[in-house]
Design a protein that fits this description.
It is a single chain. The chain contains 17 helices and eleven strands. The radius of gyration is 30 Å and the shape is extended. The strands form three sheets. It has a five-stranded mixed sheet. Strands 2-1-11 form a three-stranded antiparallel sheet, with no helix packed on it. It is α+β, with helices and mostly antiparallel strands. Helix 3 runs antiparallel to helix 17 and helix 14 runs parallel beside helix 17.
């Protein structure tokens, strides 16, 4: 155990200890990789979560907005938010007079997340001929359609498909081919979700291009908010039934985003700004753990590929220098793997430190850059010293 700790803990700082890799098995490389992934995961998670409280404390304008917004109109029961009114300070002046403050806007819409959104389809000419309705687009020839690009415009209103299912059925019953077969199958066995499936099939048959604008089987009301308001530069708080989104700026101008659910909150009326924000934050941390565990495994091949390439370089150079100990590639891989633990630790610490002032875009790429730079520099330093030692030995022998 002592020897193992010495190898991984001090090998980064000592060539002689690191070169003991030629007496070790491949398991040491995988152990180093595990250390690397764990350290990097902790660093990235901490960088994206720990600084939040400092950011919030340094955002007086946003804190006053939150204090005004959380006025008891929303309550939480079993992790779900409820509000008896719809609030949108972007579009409603009455709401704006009451809730818009310090450049921040508020949206509260606690209807279920699967609520359908009303929309209209239209097409824009790519040659400057203007906008036409989707029905007019369908009347064009195949060649004429090439000039148009489909888009949708949300109205911001809920779509009650039960009031329109008759027209959907009429359209589908007049179709043929696979669509008609699907419809006949639905009509023959009207399940509880019949209306939803008929609407989805109608969209598939009539509004074929709309699939690019929806997250599920059909455009939802929530898609309207995502499309219209979750844009760069907007400062807002959006409260849905199952989660909240917010984007704000600190007094120093740093942009901060927050999202999370209400599952960490005690049931009751939301009338305390701190309880609300930190409740969402606690949920955000839980969500982040899942997200970053996934990302670590997703990008693990990158952290593996770098030492694999460096080990190949070590093998070629050691062969050139006549070093028989590192003729086998496995020995070279263990040598580079010896550097992974401290490299990943330094990567984690650096990423965490940058979390207090760097942008999210920088934090996304920083771990890769630091990891690659440190482990490459350490490997190059060892090879340079080996080259110098080989040259000295050659001079001495001569």
């Amino acid at each position: 155990m002592k020897d193992w700790l010495k190898f991984f803990g001090l090998g980064f700082f000592s060539d002689s200890i690191a070169k003991g890799a030629n007496k070790r098995g491949l398991g040491n490389f995988f152990l180093g990789l595990i250390f690397a992934l764990v350290f990097i995961f902790c660093g990235v998670l901490a960088a994206n979560t720990v600084p939040f409280k400092a950011y919030y404390s340094a955002s007086e304008g946003y804190k006053k907005f939150i204090d005004n917004a959380v006025d008891g109109s929303v309550k939480v029961v079993d992790g779900t938010a409820y509000c008896g009114e719809f609030i949108n300070t972007f579009t409603d002046e009455t709401s704006a007079d009451k809730y818009r403050l310090n450049g921040y806007n508020l949206i509260v819409d606690t209807r279920p997340s699967d609520t359908y959104g009303e929309f209209e389809g239209y097409c824009i000419s790519q040659s400057g001929k203007g906008e036409i309705s989707y029905s007019d687009y369908l009347a064009l020839t195949k060649e004429q359609r090439k000039d148009y690009k489909f888009n949708i415009r949300y109205t911001g209103r809920e779509l009650d498909i039960s009031k329109h299912v008759g027209s959907y059925e009429s359209y589908l019953s007049a179709t043929d081919g696979d669509i008609k077969k699907e419809y006949d199958k639905l009509a023959a066995n009207k399940a509880e979700d019949y209306n939803d499936k008929v609407y989805a099939l109608y969209l598939k048959a009539y509004y074929t291009p709309v699939s690019a604008f929806q997250r599920g089987a059909a455009p939802r009301l929530r898609d309207y908010y995502y499309r219209e308001y979750l844009n760069d530069g907007q400062n807002f708080l959006i409260i849905f039934d199952d989660m909240a989104f917010s984007h704000f700026k600190t007094d120093g101008g740093r942009e901060v985003s927050l999202y999370g659910g209400f599952n960490k909150m005690v049931d009751g009326v939301l009338d305390d700004a701190g309880r609300f924000i930190y409740g969402v934050y606690d949920s955000f941390v839980s969500l982040s753990v899942t997200v970053y565990v996934y990302n670590v495994f997703r990008f693990a091949p990158v952290f593996v590929a770098i030492p694999l390439v460096l080990a190949l370089a070590v093998k070629l150079i050691m062969k050139k220098l006549g070093n028989e100990d590192f003729k086998p590639y496995l020995n070279c891989l263990n040598l580079v793997g010896c550097f992974m633990m401290f490299t990943s630790f330094l990567t984690a610490v650096t990423t965490f430190a940058f979390g207090f002032f760097a942008s999210a875009k920088v934090l996304n790429s920083l771990p890769f850059a630091v990891y690659a730079a440190v482990i490459t520099a350490r490997t190059v330093w060892l090879l340079v010293r080996e080259y110098i030692a080989a040259k000295r030995k050659k001079l001495t022998d001569n």
